[in-house]
Design a protein that fits this description.
The chain is about 40% helix and about 20% strand. It has helices spanning about 20, 80-90, 100-120, 130-145, 160-170, 175-180, 195-215, 220-225; strands spanning about 25-35, 45-55, 60-70, 125-130, 155-160. The longest helix is centred in the last third of the chain and has 21 residues, at about 195-215. The N and C termini lie far apart (about 45 Å).
Length: about 220
């Protein structure tokens, strides 16, 4: 059973940081995973990357902060779909991958996220991903396999840039959404967890910042009342 209790306790609105106020106490973390199939319970998790974000309190705009990524050893008994491996170009048997165990990757990633989340005064992390249900499903399955009782992430809330880019730019494919947002995208580098995380983070920031400039988040106006 995943622990959905709050990571920290924040009292009044006046004490909350702008980051904590922006998403109701959630700390957004951009995630991408590369896998050996579509079934989170049976198929291997092969790569995972995370990108934390920072908020400029003067402008109210977001930008990329820190990145962390791992090549991951398939868990014991994991299924490796040949079509998925061909699509991603990942060779799980390559010793030069420098792959680590799932549990080690999760613990290291969670350590960074908790540090950033605490500094921002947020209660819990929320995943930002492109087709977020897929990435969240694989993350939750890995957490369960590794018997991690306390994850910083909300187990089912997520921010999906597929939906957001559909609203903002009329595109749902990551490469096309980036093109519409005037974000450089190299298809030859796609399907790397780190590259896709970076581009998803840029896209998320672009959408949120555009909304901010249009007056969609009146933090300053509310404080002036």
């Amino acid at each position: 059973m995943l622990d959905v209790s709050k990571e920290t306790t924040v009292t009044s609105k006046e004490e909350k940081s702008p980051m904590a106020q922006r998403f109701r106490g959630y700390f957004p973390v951009v995630i991408d995973v590369e896998t050996a199939g579509f079934n989170a319970k049976t198929d291997a998790l092969l790569e995972m990357a995370a990108c934390t974000l920072k908020l400029d309190e003067a402008s109210g705009e977001f930008s990329i902060d820190e990145k962390i990524w791992f090549n991951i050893e398939p868990f014991e008994g994991a299924n490796l779909e040949p079509a998925a491996l061909e699509f991603t170009g990942i060779d799980p048997t390559n010793p030069l991958r420098g792959a680590v165990e799932e549990s080690d990757a999760l613990k290291e990633m969670f350590k960074l996220i908790r540090k950033k989340m605490k500094a921002a005064g947020c209660q819990r992390a929320v995943m930002v991903a492109h087709n977020a249900a897929f990435d969240l499903g694989f993350l939750n399955a890995a957490i369960e396999r590794c018997n991690i009782k306390r994850s910083p992430f909300h187990p089912f809330v997520s921010f999906d840039t597929t939906t957001l880019s559909g609203l903002a730019f009329g595109q749902t494919v990551l490469a096309k959404a980036c093109e519409a947002a005037e974000i450089e995208f190299n298809n030859s580098e796609a399907h790397s967890a780190l590259y896709d995380t970076e581009k998803t983070a840029e896209l998320f920031c672009k959408i949120i910042n555009k909304w901010q400039r249009l007056g969609g988040w009146p933090l300053i106006a509310e404080e002036a009342k």
